[in-house]
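Student: Send me a single protein entry containing the residue sequence and its fold in token form, directly below this note:

Tutor:
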Amino acid sequence: MSFLPLGLSSALLEILGKEGIVDATPIQAAAIPAVLRNKDLLGIAPTGSGKTASYVLPIVQGATTWEASKYREPVVLVMVPTRELALQVDAVFKTYLPAARGQSSLAVFGGASVNSQMQEIGKVSILIATPGRLLELVEKNAVRLSAVQTLVLDEADKMLSLGFKDEVDRILQLLPPRRQNLLFSATFSDDLGASHKRWLRDPQVIRVDSERVEIDLIRQSGYFVSEEKKGPLLRYLIKRSTYQQILVFASSTAKVDGIVHKLFKNGIHAAAMHSKLSQQMRRDALQQFKNGKLPVLVATDLLARGIDIEFLPCVINYELPRSPKDYIHRIGRTGRAESPGDAISLVSPEESAHFRVIQKKTGKQVPMIDGNHLDLHGY
């Protein structure tokens, strides 16, 4: 669908044109008019479906009518679970904010100097924040939330299921009761269902079929393999592939580090992506991966939220995620922009029953190969 009938300004349409974006995605076509009408909204759509722009564009449009922001009193608050996603959202705002002169955005998060972030807030009108760092800034009187007119919870499912709930509740108590609330999520959970009933007033609910959007373009395959052969099999697949980029998922920071160490020992250039690395290390690794200078990135689920690459060709599940929804989210990193991608799962005997559950829930039968019969000598 064209952006023309959605009510966006000519300045925003011009920027979209320069970015080469002509058609709105389903979530954008439904959400943009609702946000412009100041409706509360719950948007459920898969990763890669354009959720960020579906709230950034109408917020920037509304920013053209704002008065100059008061000192340390943002008008819009966007809460996200990770530093990577905060930077990603801020980058999208900065792309379109030239259409609203005089307005600015800033991303604040832990792992970076709180003093520099305190100095930068100033008259920022749009603040993107992780909950812990935001509360720290509030406690230092570096920011006040009494002027917030619009609250956005991005990746709300993760925000409410990964230990952020108490922090989010504390932040909500600091906000004005009369405000617009926008919740966006890749999946719908019980926590999200209960929260949206408490926070949203007569919301518009938008659902985009995640399985249909994400899975249809993805070529899924799997290997039955013993746990001790997973490392050699991973290196076998990487060395024999023609993929320019491969994203590997593992369940813990220790496992991620172990995989990267073994890849390096076997001549494969790879980097880790997890919460125990410094912000600069994570940023450098992600930038190299996006630029095609780093062929393999190994990540935990939470940190992968900031990895958004339009034509990522391959995802490998070194270990299966805990839930079918997380499986969909993982493999949905590929198969985007109408381009097919590959998703490969390494399944140990202990994971076989769980993988059958995942296939049943996703409605896709995954062709399997017995990896134990492959010649992995030298890998």
Summary: The chain is about 40% helix and 15% strand. Residues 4-208 form a domain with the Rossmann fold fold (CATH 3.40.50.300). The mean pLDDT is 86.
